[in-house]
Amino acid sequence: MQKLPNNKLDVKLIALDLDDTLLNNDAQISDKNVEILQKCAEKGIYVVLCSGRLEAGIVPFVRRLQIAGKETGRYVIAINGCSVFDTHERKQILCNKVSSEILLRADEIAVKAGLQSQIYSTDTIYYGTLTPWIQMDIDLCKVNGKKADNYKELLQKGSPKMLVPCNPRTPEVVQDLLKKMKDEFGDKAVVFTSKPFFLEILPPDCGKGEAVLWLAKHIGIAPERTMAFGDGMNDESMIRQCAYGVAMKNACDYIKEAADFVTEKTNDESGVGLFIEKFVL
Q: Which residues is 75 bridged to in the sheet?
């Protein structure tokens, strides 16, 4: 059964996942979505792109919306909530890191499984050994990739996120690692799959939802006026923690069940913009 609001929703901040949510199947923001989000920003509603990508990988989409110059378009949430970036100040205003101990152990587990890991700065993906799957993520994120002179030494400095990618044809490899790392790390790290073949390790108590609520408090917006759109497992925290969690029509069933509402259209049909136009503006 379709879950839709019965009336207009009082919203002051809208957090938006990118892939398979705001972006269509060509990884673009539709004209309709741009039009509606520009109207939101003009009405004083904060529009916050919230992605697993690095800051540098999100900025092109901020430019596409043409709202970065406004107060309501100045913030982005990157690396699945590990970083909150202020585009006006051009700096991180929140940055959480995975401990060096966890990073070194996770890398060891990945290598034993025949995989390689990667870590992140605001604009670069660092790795010790380049694999086709690391290159796939670099190309997907459209950011710089760089071989570290001493990868283990770099891991000892900590990082907001580690990713272990595998061959998309064998996602079971990452699923095995997921169970192993969850069992070993417990509450010392957040371990999940953002795609069936992407294993992510984040700091504890860190996620998109936590970052959205932190930003809302930073700005002075009540949690009761927050809204989030998403489709995948890495969107769960903001879908659950924001006042209005909206799953895309194309979202996985688990996220649809967790959400307050489900869009009437998919990401490829401007589902975000049409929902906001009908139930917010």
A: 86
Provide the token pair at 174: 């990452």
- Following DSSP, what letter does each residue of 86-111 receive, concatenated? ETTTTEEEEE--B-HHHHHHHHHHHH
Hey, is 242 helix, strand or coil? Answer: coil
Whole-model pTM: value is: 0.83
Report yes or no: 243 and 85 within 8 Å, Cβ to Cβ.
no
Tokens of 62: 């901020």
Cα(259)–Cα(223) distance, rounded to whole angstroms? 16
Report whether 239 contacts 209 (CB < 8 A).
Answer: yes
Burial annotation 98-110 (CB, 10 A radius, 16+ → b, else e): bbbebbebbbebb
| In the chain, % of residues over pLDDT 70 | 99
Please tell me the distance from the alpha carbon of residue 272 to that of residue 257, in angstroms, as a whole number. Answer: 18
pLDDT tens digits, one per residue of 25-50: 999 999 999 999 999 999 999 999 99
Longest distance between any two alpha carbons in the chain, whole Å: 57
Q: What is the identity of the amino acid at 143?
A: V
- pLDDT of the residue at 123: 84
